[in-house]
């Protein structure tokens, strides 16, 4: 399952590079699912609303404690909406994965080999999905708040084997810990999915290379296998944000991630 980027403000699941990646994997026998999720574009306008009105406005959409945290830490309405959309994206991604598991028989999906990947905001969402507890970003809103949640396969569970991360960060889990008063890295443990990261060292104000190093350090401290491919452009200069043409050791992102999954999940390739 792959999650597109867009800074939680927008983005599309059929981005050409994602479609190319889907063809690469599907041609090798994988079921590749690219998902959409709610972004700021679906949240409506909040300009001029009082804080108390915002809590009511987002009731049943995002938990009040998350919205309150956003209000206390945002510089403007756009920041509040982006922070709220971060939460919605996570709920939607988890619901999508539950849907995939619930319909695995229809699509000949072997749920013993689930991989979740993403780029930019999608990589941020990937990390939070793979690391957080299954009830996180799910149980904060109940059926009483939103009866339509009954259609989201709330009783399904899943086990993610591997995570694929392209130029992302740990920020969503940082926010989750802050909102709910948890210790730093509370949700990480030795049973977390293995991780492949593709990230370049060129200046990136959105998701700097240091984010990948932080994740590498967390994983190393827990003894969980991870690999960081420091990407360069085809001309050999450091790659930056959105480097779909980035390379490492002469290989592109599709082959790098595919080879990682085949080796680490012990998959037989004919």
Description of the structure:
- The mean pLDDT is 96.
- It is built from eight helices and eight strands.
- The chain has one domain (2-264): Rossmann fold.
- The strands form two sheets. The protein has a six-stranded parallel β-sheet with strand order 2-1-3-4-5-6, with helices on both faces.
- α2 (51-57) packs antiparallel against α3 (64-73) and α3 packs antiparallel against α4 (77-102).
- The chain starts with a strand and ends in a 6-residue tail after the last helix.
- It is α/β, with parallel strands linked by helices and 270 residues long.
Summarize the structure.
The chain has 270 residues and is α/β, with parallel strands linked by helices. The protein has one domain (2-264): Rossmann fold, CATH 3.40.50.1820.
Quick tags:
alpha/beta, two-stranded antiparallel sheet, 8 strands, Rossmann fold, 6-stranded parallel β-sheet, 270 residues
Major sheet details:
6 strands, parallel
What's the mean pLDDT score? 96
What proportion strand? 5-15%
Shape call: globular
Give the strand order of the largest sheet, numbering strands 1, 2, ... along the chain: 2-1-3-4-5-6
**Percent range of helical residues:** 25-40%
CATH class: Alpha Beta
Reported by name, the CATH topology is Rossmann fold
Q: What's the total helix number? A: 8
The run of helices and strands is EHEHHHEHEHEHEEEH
């Amino acid at each position: 399952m792959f999650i597109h980027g867009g800074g939680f403000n927008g983005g599309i699941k059929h981005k050409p590079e994602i479609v190319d990646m889907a063809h690469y994997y599907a041609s090798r026998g994988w079921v590749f699912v690219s998902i959409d999720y709610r972004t700021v574009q679906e949240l409506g306008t909040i300009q001029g609303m009082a804080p108390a009105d915002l809590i009511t406005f987002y009731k049943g959409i995002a938990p009040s404690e998350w919205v309150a945290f956003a209000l206390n830490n945002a510089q403007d309405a756009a920041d509040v909406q982006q922070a709220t959309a971060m939460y919605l994206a996570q709920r939607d991604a988890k619901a999508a994965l539950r849907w995939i598991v619930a319909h695995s028989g229809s699509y000949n999906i072997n749920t013993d080999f689930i991989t979740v990947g993403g780029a930019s905001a999608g990589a941020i969402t990937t990390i939070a999905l793979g690391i957080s507890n299954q009830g996180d970003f799910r149980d904060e809103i109940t059926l009483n708040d939103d009866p339509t949640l009954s259609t989201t396969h709330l009783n399904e569970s899943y086990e993610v084997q591997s995570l694929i991360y392209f130029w992302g960060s740990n920020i969503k889990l940082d926010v989750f810990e802050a909102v709910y008063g948890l210790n730093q890295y509370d949700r990480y443990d030795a049973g977390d999915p293995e991780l492949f990261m593709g990230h370049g060292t060129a200046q990136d104000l959105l998701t700097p290379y240091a984010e990948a190093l932080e994740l590498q350090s967390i994983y190393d401290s827990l003894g969980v296998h991870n690999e960081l491919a420091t990407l360069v452009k085809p001309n050999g200069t450091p790659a930056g944000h959105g480097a779909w043409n980035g390379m490492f050791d002469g290989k592109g992102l599709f082959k790098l991630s595919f080879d990682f999954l085949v080796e680490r999940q012990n998959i037989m390739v004919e």
